[in-house]
């Protein structure tokens, strides 16, 4: 009842806001059903080294909605984060990625492949996260050294010492860490120097216009130099053309991901792609 009144008040002042609230509530309801009916799956996007060889894949979540078709994560992850549903969704994503790593480990062609898994700030900060990861590893027999957890700078809104402690606990299990969308969020160099990372991912917004925008190119070049001089691997996201990749290569970039190499692919297509690309 109170909820109704709240809604009416909002509608009175701002119909657009009301629409957003309704849409959010609808997604939340649909997400419960999606979890029950297993409508989520992972797509995999190849990541390549300086020579264009595939060294890993990023697991990207997709929602096969019975009416709306394939829904990209940008449309439901923010809702799942707000409602807390991300905890269960994220657990299933991590478990599935571990199962996949374990399967690839069994075959010599794919044993070296790394899987990068996105973990949201809320999931990372949950008290059960380390146990959950440990359980997934045990249950599947996955090799933790082939799993890279991608965090965004939003984890830094909490106490940095807690963040470092948790990363270290997970590193002790063998996992590695990457900082996703680097440069778009809350990171400062003071934090960066303390985070025990293996990789920085240059956000695609800096990569998109490197051919024409001197500032974007300067930013990419600086991130590459900064990361490498700190002993980190640096991967450029959103590499869409050969010209982008050539420029990034000439600025010293040694890892990339983007439509130029491959789009995120369902498992069967990825395995076909892998078979055609030596790695
Ligand atoms: P992200 O982790 O930065 O992932 C990269 C996004 O860039 C993906 O979008 C990918 O499809 C897209 N992309 C890859 N190459 C190119 C390119 O060459 N050009 C362009 N324009 N885009 C490219 P996607 O799959 O829609 O995912 C969006 C975001 O949703 C991800 O950004 C990540 O933050 C989040 N996400 C995806 N899966 C998960 C998940 O399992 N858990 C969590 N917490 N977040 C996820
Ligand atoms: Mg990512
Ligand atoms: Mg990213
Ligand atoms: Mg992104």
Automatic annotation (TrEMBL):
Domain of life (superkingdom): Bacteria
EAL domain: residues covered: 24-278
Protein name (record): EAL domain-containing protein
Organism encoding this protein: Comamonas nitrativorans
Span within the parent record: 488 to 766 of 766
């Amino acid at each position: 009842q109170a909820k109704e009144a709240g809604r009416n008040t909002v509608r009175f002042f701002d119909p657009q806001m009301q629409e957003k609230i309704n849409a959010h509530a609808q997604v939340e309801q649909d997400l419960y059903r999606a979890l029950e009916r297993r409508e989520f799956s992972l797509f995999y996007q190849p990541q390549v080294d300086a020579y264009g060889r595939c060294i890993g894949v990023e697991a990207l979540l997709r929602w096969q909605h019975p009416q709306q078709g394939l829904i990209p994560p940008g449309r439901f992850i923010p809702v799942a984060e707000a409602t807390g549903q991300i905890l269960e969704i994220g657990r299933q994503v991590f478990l599935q990625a571990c199962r996949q790593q374990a399967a690839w480990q069994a075959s010599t062609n794919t044993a070296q492949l790394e899987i990068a898994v996105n973990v949201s700030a809320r999931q990372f900060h949950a008290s059960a996260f380390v146990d959950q990861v440990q359980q997934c590893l045990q249950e599947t027999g996955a090799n933790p050294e082939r799993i890279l957890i991608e965090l965004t700078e939003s984890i830094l809104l909490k106490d940095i010492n807690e963040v470092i402690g948790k990363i270290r606990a997970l590193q002790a299990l063998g996992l590695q860490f990457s900082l996703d969308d680097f440069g778009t969020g809350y990171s400062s160099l003071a934090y960066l120097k303390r985070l025990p990372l293996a990789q920085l991912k240059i956000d695609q917004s800096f990569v998109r216009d490197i051919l024409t925008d001197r500032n974007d190119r300067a930013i990419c070049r600086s991130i590459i130099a900064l990361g490498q001089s700190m002993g980190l691997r640096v991967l450029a996201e959103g590499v869409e053309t050969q010209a982008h990749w050539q420029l990034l290569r000439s600025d010293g970039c040694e890892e990339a991901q983007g439509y130029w190499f491959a789009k995120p692919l369902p498992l069967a297509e990825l395995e076909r792609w892998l078979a055609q690309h030596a790695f």
